[in-house]
Design goal:
316 residues, alpha/beta, 9-stranded mixed sheet, 4-stranded mixed sheet
Length: 316
């Protein structure tokens, strides 16, 4: 059940992608061919997957970022999908003669995915709409880390206004990246936090980054849960929900979206991480990338079931 009152408005900033997903028994060897057992055409991109999750979990979502020429089919396809999810697209910037990103993704029976993507370099020259328009009534901003080039000034202004800025880190960051200090929350994966910090252990990597940024820091580790630093600088862990994964595409993005929504609803990081873990776990049980994000009731039921199971194991 969505909390009472007006649902929070969250601004997601990123670059939408048109995804072609192929289910395969195994990723083919170099120079070989393989038959896919299933093909699906979906919309994706880190921030867009998160936006879909937020909308399904009860938030109000506005999206800002670049998209290709209005004449191309990819952008039209993505916009139609966003409209179905109830995402506000009025702040998307259409760029003449630019191509909307397209990816080809192979998904193995284990749920692991391998992908290749084309992003037109001109997308990074976009100028976002005025901050007053974008941040009006906004309770949180969620941004892809790769978008620092055109989003850093907006994120800095959001923080000046006391609005949380959550960065979904989708690749290793430079230690000079402005988002390291502009963000209020940085959500890495294990591989990305290690590569960013230059340390091959998650906890130590987080501690090193904590010396460079005041932001909340966490690293997701798939079925091994999430490791994070509390306000005292101590490491804590949030367990993952055990599920049979069939498709991990977009799971991290769903995690980021669910975490952001719970923060915007007024919850602390501990509750937000638990909620996000449940949402990401449910996404992994079904195919469809970010478009397989769960509904709010499903997440609440999983959390309740886990709470009851834990209570039954506790000594009386």
């Amino acid at each position: 059940m969505v909390p009472s009152g007006t649902a929070p408005r969250i601004l997601c900033i990123g670059i939408p992608v048109r995804d072609l997903t192929f289910r395969v028994d195994a990723v083919p060897a170099r120079g070989s061919k393989a038959n896919a057992t299933h093909l699906a055409e979906i919309c994706g991109g880190n921030a867009l997957n998160a936006a879909i999750a937020i909308a399904r979990l009860g938030g109000r979502v506005a999206f800002a970022g670049p998209m290709g020429d209005a004449r191309e089919t990819s952008s039209g396809f993505i916009l139609a999908q966003m409209a179905q999810e109830g995402i506000d697209t009025m702040h998307i910037v259409r760029m003449p003669d630019v191509t909307t990103p397209v990816s080809a993704i192979m998904i193995e029976p284990s749920g692991e995915r391998t992908l290749t993507i084309y992003r037109d370099p001109a997308l990074w020259t976009v100028e976002l709409p005025d901050a007053d328009r974008l941040l009006d009534g906004c309770q949180a901003v969620l941004v892809e880390s790769r978008c620092a080039a055109f989003a850093i000034s907006l994120c800095t202004e959001a923080r000046r206004r006391g609005i949380p800025v959550i960065v979904g880190v989708d690749r290793a960051m430079s230690l000079q990246d402005g988002l390291l200090t502009a963000a209020s929350h940085l959500l890495f994966s294990s591989e990305q936090v290690q590569e960013t910090a230059g340390i091959t252990e998650d906890g130590e990597a987080l501690k090193r980054l904590a010396r460079l940024t005041p932001a909340f820091l966490a690293a997701t580790r798939g079925p091994d849960g999430t490791i994070w630093l509390n306000e005292a600088g101590e490491l804590e862990e949030t367990a993952a929900f055990p599920v049979q994964a069939v498709d991990t595409l977009g799971a991290g993005d769903v995690f980021h979206g669910a975490f952001t929504l719970r923060l915007a609803e007024g919850e602390g990081v501990r509750e937000a991480l638990r909620f996000a873990a449940a949402a990401a776990a449910l996404k992994c049980t079904r195919h469809g990338g970010g478009q397989a994000a769960p509904q709010r009731l499903e997440v609440e039921e999983l959390l309740q079931a886990a709470q009851l199971a834990e209570a039954s194991r506790s000594p009386r």
